[in-house]
């Protein structure tokens, strides 16, 4: 077998579970773990050529003379799945009737019919027309036909006023990257609309020759894009993902003559789909159903152009140089439990103090053509928070507040904010120091009834994943009906009060697959298969928010964790299920393996295939988890 020295070396290493083969003619060395996860690499000069299935084995080069070859496991149903199959099958086949019973009893699909069961059987293309074997049953459970969210389309009541909905809202929607030096373009606007975003923000300024209008982030090095280009793109893509209304919020820095030009552009571009408000719209907002395929303009009647520009420049100068530290994963979503916001002083932000108006006085310089376009009027009267949050029974409005100001306001005026947002629209936007286009925890806005939690959609990170998750609800139409307790006129919801547990979500993380197909085999680790673990938890009111994690499984493209977690929920209506897969790295930061956020309100009970998404929110072709959800 190559001489006594080679045999002795093999014997000594085999005792440790590792086989090493040395040839007398070369120094090549091969490793194989004897747990069916690695394969013995046999030098062809000793044993001749051996044909090997390249898909079932994978080689990692440690150095020029050292390789590790791993056997790739075959995806196999977990034990719980096998037991369920046995329970609902006979003689190794689950019939149509057995599958229907499984759908009703385990998947909690109470209205499942024999026809539904037959469609599943047909979808897995199994040779048994009247049933499925274990392999086909597992294929159904782990397939696209078995998603975690119900395919209900738009199913919320869409006949309530706009103020009764959370609305998918963008901030500085024209920026391609950071807030200071990136390009302005219509491309991020198009991308946002394709995702279902319903509120697009445009900052409009005079161009360099003062005879036309550009869109840019004023007081920065961002390169402008023409307003007309943005408007045309909005018209083309507004209703690709949803037919419900698109709101354009304008941050206006124009002179009256340019306002008149904007009015002409807007009118000519949108034509009949432009919403022209009547006086009744300022007494109560219209409903999304009545505004299908309409464009709504929202802005605050501006001050004189120069005064507005001076305030903006002063704010930019005072904030310059303070950057956020959100990294590739995105910072962990801020914990609202001990509320760091309580330490803020109750003073007003400089931007909020100065960005106020004097009611009708501020409209004197407003071009009449421009004024008539405004479908949602934005105001911020003088007098601070008490004046801002005063509810007028005869008039509705939109109020904008910075992230920092809002975090302070919820400490002292939390109930007033909830009361204000029953009839009026509140928009909260990222603080000006988020130069990297990062975001904040959106739950602080939603649990106070804020309709427009404005986000930088061009970035990525955990906060934005929560935003994506919330608006997967209601068919992804961009409007999610607020829970009744946020609209209740009898009692004002207080997020700070801990409520009794309404339900408990039991989550089983069975296994994952797909990384082998969507990533290069050395993407996670140059020397071995990845070491995956899953983080799973809840984003919601402070009492519900928590994260837990599975054990780390080493050297496995098909991790099978089979771990169970329970999450008591006091306000399930606002809760999101957070799921992240990490690849453990002992010497560096853990690698990203996929993520998703799912609205608990639309989570399907039973065993489900959960597709994972990239940092940017793009769905992977193959990566998914097999999980089970039970409400107990």
From TrEMBL:
Location of the protein in the cell: Cell membrane
Broad class of where this protein is predominantly found: membrane
GO function terms (MF aspect): phosphatidylinositol-4,5-bisphosphate phospholipase C activity
All copies of domain PI-PLC Y-box, residue ranges: 400-486
GO cellular component: plasma membrane
Region annotation (Disordered) ranges: 307-341
Membrane topology recorded in Swiss-Prot or TrEMBL: Peripheral membrane protein
Keyword Hydrolase: yes
Compositional bias segments (type: Basic and acidic residues): 307-325
Domain C2: 481-614
Catalytic activity annotation: a 1,2-diacyl-sn-glycero-3-phospho-(1D-myo-inositol-4,5-bisphosphate) + H2O = 1D-myo-inositol 1,4,5-trisphosphate + a 1,2-diacyl-sn-glycerol + H(+)
Name assigned to this protein: Phosphoinositide phospholipase C
């Amino acid at each position: 077998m190559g001489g006594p020295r080679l045999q002795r070396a093999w014997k000594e290493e085999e005792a440790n579970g590792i086989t090493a083969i040395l040839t007398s003619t070369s120094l090549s060395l091969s490793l194989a773990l004897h747990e069916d996860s690695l394969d013995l690499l046999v030098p062809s000069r000793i044993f001749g050529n051996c044909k090997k299935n390249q898909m079932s084995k994978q080689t990692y080069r440690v150095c020029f003379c050292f390789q590790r070859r791993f056997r790739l496991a075959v995806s196999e149903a977990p034990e719980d799945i096998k037991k369920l199959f046995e329970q609902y099958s006979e003689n190794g086949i689950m019939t149509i009737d057995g599958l229907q019973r499984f759908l009703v009893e385990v998947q909690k699909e109470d209205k499942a019919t024999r026809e539904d069961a037959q469609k599943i059987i047909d979808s897995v293309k199994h040779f048994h027309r009247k049933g499925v074997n274990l392999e086909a049953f597992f294929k159904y459970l782990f397939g696209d036909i078995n998603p975690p969210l119900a395919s209900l389309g738009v199913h919320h009541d869409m006949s309530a006023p706009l103020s009764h909905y959370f609305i998918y809202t963008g901030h500085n929607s024209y920026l391609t990257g950071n807030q200071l030096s990136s390009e302005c373009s219509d491309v991020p606007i198009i991308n946002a609309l394709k995702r279902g975003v319903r509120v697009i923000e445009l900052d409009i300024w005079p161009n360099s020759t003062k005879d036309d209008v550009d869109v840019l982030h004023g007081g920065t090095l961002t390169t402008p894009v023409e307003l007309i280009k943005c408007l045309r793109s909005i018209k083309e893509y507004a209703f690709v993902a949803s037919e419900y209304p698109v709101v354009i919020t304008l941050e206006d820095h124009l002179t009256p003559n340019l306002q008149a030009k904007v009015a002409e552009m807007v009118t000519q571009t949108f034509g009949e789909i432009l919403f022209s408000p009547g006086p009744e719209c300022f007494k109560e907002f219209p409903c999304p159903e009545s505004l299908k395929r309409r464009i709504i303009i929202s802005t605050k009647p501006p001050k004189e152009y120069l005064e507005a520009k001076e305030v903006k420049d002063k704010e930019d100068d005072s904030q310059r140089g303070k950057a956020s530290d959100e990294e590739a994963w995105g910072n962990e979503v801020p914990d609202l439990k001990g509320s760091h916001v309580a330490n803020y002083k109750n003073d007003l932000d400089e931007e909020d103090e100065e960005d106020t108006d004097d009611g009708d006085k501020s409209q004197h310089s407003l071009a009449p053509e421009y004024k008539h376009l405004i479908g949602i009027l934005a105001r911020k009267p003088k007098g601070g928070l008490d004046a801002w949050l005063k509810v007028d029974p005869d008039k509705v409005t939109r109020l904008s507040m910075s992230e920092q100001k809002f975090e302070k306001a919820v400490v002292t005026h939390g109930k007033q904010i909830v009361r204000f947002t029953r009839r009026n629209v509140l928009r909260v936007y990222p603080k000006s120091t988020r130069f990297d286009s990062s975001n904040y925890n959106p739950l602080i806005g939603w649990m106070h009834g804020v309709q427009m939690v404005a986000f930088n959609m061009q970035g990525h990170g955990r906060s934005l994943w929560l935003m994506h998750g919330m608006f997967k609800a209601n068919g992804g139409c961009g409007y999610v009906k607020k829970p009744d307790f946020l609209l209740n006129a009898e009692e004002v919801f207080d997020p700070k009060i801990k409520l009794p547990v309404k339900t408990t979500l039991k989550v089983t993380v069975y296994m994952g697959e797909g990384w082998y197909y969507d990533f290069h085999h050395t993407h996670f680790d140059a020397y071995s298969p990845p070491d995956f673990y899953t983080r799973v938890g809840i984003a919601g009111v402070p009492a519900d928010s928590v994260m837990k994690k599975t054990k780390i499984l080493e050297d496995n493209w098909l991790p099978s964790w089979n771990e169970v977690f329970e999450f008591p929920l006091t306000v399930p209506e606002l809760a999101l299920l957070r799921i992240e897969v990490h690849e453990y790295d002992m010497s560096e930061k853990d690698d990203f393996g996929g993520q998703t956020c799912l609205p608990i309100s639309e989570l399907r009970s039973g065993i489900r295939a959960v597709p994972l998404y990239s940092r940017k929110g793009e769905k992977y072709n193959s990566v998914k988890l097999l999980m089970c959800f039970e409400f107990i």
